[in-house]
Amino acid sequence: MTVLAWRLGILVAILAVWEVAVRPLNPIFYVPPSALPGALVRMWRVPELPALGEHVWLTFTEIAGAYALAVAAGLWLGFLLGLRRTVGRIYEPLLAALYAVPSVIWYPSLMLFFGLGPASKIAFGVLLGFFPIVLSVLAGIRQVPATLVTVARSMGARPWTVFRKVMLPAMASTMVGGLRAGLALSVVGVLVGEILGSRAGVGYVINYAYGLMMTREYAVLALIAAAAILAVDTVGALVEARVKRWAG
Amino acid sequence: MPGGTTPPTPPIVLEAIGKRYETTSGAVQAVDSVSLTVRAEEFVTLLGPSGCGKSTVLGMIAGLVRPDAGRVLVDGTPCDGPNPDKVALVFQDGGLFPWRTALDNVTFGLELRGVPAAKRREIARGLLEPMGLRGFEKKYPRELSGGMRQRVAIARALALDTPILLMDEPFGALDEQTRLLMGEWLVGIRRRARKAVVFVTHSLHEAIALSDRIVVMTARPGRIKDVIDVTLPFPRDLNAPEVTDLRAKLWEQVREESLKAMGNPP
Fold it and tell me: Among A229, B56, B72, B133, which is most exposed with the fewest C-beta within 10 angstroms?
């Protein structure tokens, strides 16, 4: 309770300092917090654009789609490379090399293939979210203690049982970290995709406001997006902590 | 056999088993023509320097390692693969599942066997209680002391209720005091458990305190150097003159092999 009160107090103090500090400055570059609610109301319904709610919903579905595909592809490839030694030895260095390349350089080609619509954003979200998931699966498989697998085998466990009852729990804390990082990066991918080139979505609206020098509107949208991402990541952190406590 | 009865099938027969490992620096003969028969309810200790193939012999009996010479008979049947109805194993570091409570670790093997949940919990509680682990059933391995963890690991093996128990340096990771106490405790339960036990250790103390027979193994390649029957009654007084003599004799043999394993330093 006191912690909460402190946090609230600090937040109010920051807003107050911010407000006072930017008052005498150019309002185009220095947005006072008191101007944000009004800006949000204006962005809620921009005459030439769909309602803000529709953009938010579109971005949300793009993120959900991108993350679902990143998880599916990441787990599939991770287990394929991790459990099949030969395949793993051939392709793992390739994967690590690709991971080292900043993914943004692939975005233009994704737009060429998938167009300006949601497909290219989803593809970019998948591309970004996929790597930490694959790599966490590979790391997780390597971390499974050989003794535990031997214990299960000595008690008559078949490969599928070993996988389910030993490998998955032993990998859980590493994998959940990768899944959390993947979610964060899928969000980044979709938003960056929307900002770089699109016709709808939160990133598009942010870019729209920025492009018209509507800095107040830009600021409020950016802050709301940041708050939403923070909320999602907080949930992710809680899940991760829980899994880690369980898996020891 | 005229006039005689058929002798009972020994639980473990090793017929000249051998095992080579391919390593990056060439092939290593870990075990070489080891032959041994373990009788029912007998406690046999494999004693020898580190890396002498003791654990490999155990792995071959457990069906986890395939011998490339000779054969292993478990209860008269050639062994191919793990045999959880006949053989249970205790590992050096316990090998407890960190995400399972003490109780759920003990029930693991029964779960694989398809024993109903209520029944397997009952069995596990019945094993943990006399081990002084009552009230610790819901604790995770990390919340238990080293000695407790090892008792849980032993309970997990006993839960399978097999005629054969294999123990690979089960107290190797424990401090000296706990180790001695665990040894005393094992002497207590081994009489009641009525199992054939093969116990791997490099501790002379443990070997003398627990064994009916001590098999001394040579440095790599692991062969049988000597087999010594220990007929002293249990519990053994480790300061008795017979024990002191036995220890001196064992030490002489183990010392020789340990020196070889170390590459005969001056």
Answer: A229
